Amino acid sequence: MNWLLWALISGAVLSAYVVFIRPTLRDQPSFKEFYEQEESFWKALRLKLAGLKQKVTTTILFVAGIVIAGYDQIAPLVLETGVDVTSLTDKIPAKAWPFILMGAAGILQYFRRLSDQRAAAKEKELEAIAEGK
After folding, report:
1. CB 111 within 8 A of CB 61
2. What is the C-alpha to C-alpha distance for residues 68 and 75, in angstroms, rounded to an integer?
3. Torsional sign, CA 56, 59, 60, 61
4. 111 and which of 45, 54, 76, 131 could share a cystine (Cβ 3.0–4.6 Å)?
């Protein structure tokens, strides 16, 4: 129950920031300096994490698959010792698996597209530098 409360509070704070605070920082001339600092922070974070999102997502999906497959293989052996063990994959409805897989593929495709756009922008920048010489 505590995690649900924290999730709701975090969602409310994030929504308030996106809906109220950020537009105010952008529109008010007196807050323009704060908005520029905020924007430069997100830009720096984006550059720092460039290309990392796809690798982390792929690794998480890979490890999750190993854990689930390993659990389903080890669970019958542990069951023989008298411990009550249920399969992890039985806890998720069968109809949800295609959506889970499509969602994972969609996330990876989105990150791949971001990476391709970044590579195309760098290529254009290098071409502009080469033409300027």
Report:
1. no
2. 10
3. positive
4. 54
Per-residue burial over 101-131, b = 16 or more CB atoms within 10 Å of its CB, e = otherwise: eeebeeeeeebeeeeeeeeeeeeeeeeeeee
- Distances, alpha carbon 59 to alpha carbons 53, 54, 118, 126, in Å: 10, 8, 21, 31
How far is residue 92's CA from residue 42's CA, in Å, rounded to a whole number?
36
Report whether pLDDT(1) > 70: no
Which pLDDT band, with edges at 50, 70 and 90, does 68 fall under?
Answer: confident
Indicate whether this model's pTM tops 0.90. no
Nearest to 89 by CA among 81, 78, 97: 97
Q: Which of 111, 116, 131, 117 is nearest to 61 (CA)?
A: 111
Predicted confidence (pLDDT) per residue in 69-102, tens digit: 777 777 777 778 777 666 666 777 778 877 888 8
| 55-79 core/surface letters (b: 16 or more CB in 10 A; e: else) | eeeeeeeeeeeeeeeeeeeeeeeee
